[in-house]
Amino acid sequence: MKRLLMAAGITLMAQGAMAGDSEIVKVQASGDVAATMDALQAAVEGAGATVFARVDHAGGAAKVDLELSDSQLLIFGNPKLGTPAMQDDALAGLYLPLKVLVYQDGDGQTWLAYEDPGKMLGALEGISGEGEYIAKMTGALGKLTGKAAGN
C-alpha cells in the first residue's frame, strides 16, 4: 500500500504542482481550453469512467452578457471507485463525482485543476487516509490530467 501511495505521489509531483498547502493540484497544459477539455474527456471515457457533465463557465457568463476567461469543468466518476468511499462515509458524496477544471489564467496559460482526493476525502471521519480508493483516485487524476495536458 505504501508503495502505491508513494507512486501516486511521485506521479502527481512529476505532472503537476500543489498550490502551497492547498487542496488544489494544478497541471499546466500545452493546448487551449477547448482542446485540453476534449483531450481530458476522451481520456476519461477511454479509461472507462462516466462523464456526467461538461460545464462551460465562460459560455454561461456570455449568455448573461458577462465576460469570463475560458473555463470548463468536467464532472466524471467510476462507481467502483466512489461507492466504497461513500460506504465508509456518506459525506464523501459531497466531493464525488470527481471534477477537473480546465481554465485560462490572466497570462493566457491553460491549466487543469482538481482537488487532491487524499486531502478532500481524508478530512472525513469515516475515511482512512490509507484507503485504497484514495490512491486509485489520486493516480487516475494524475494520469488523466497529464494525458490531457500533453505531458
Automatic annotation (TrEMBL):
The protein's name in its UniProt record: DUF302 domain-containing protein
Domain of life: Bacteria
Organism from which the protein derives: Roseovarius rhodophyticola
Key word Iron present: no
Signal peptide per UniProt: 1-19
Domain DUF302 residues, every copy: 55-117
Origin organism lineage: Bacteria, Pseudomonadati, Pseudomonadota, Alphaproteobacteria, Rhodobacterales
Keywords annotated in UniProt: Signal
SUPFAM superfamilies: TT1751-like
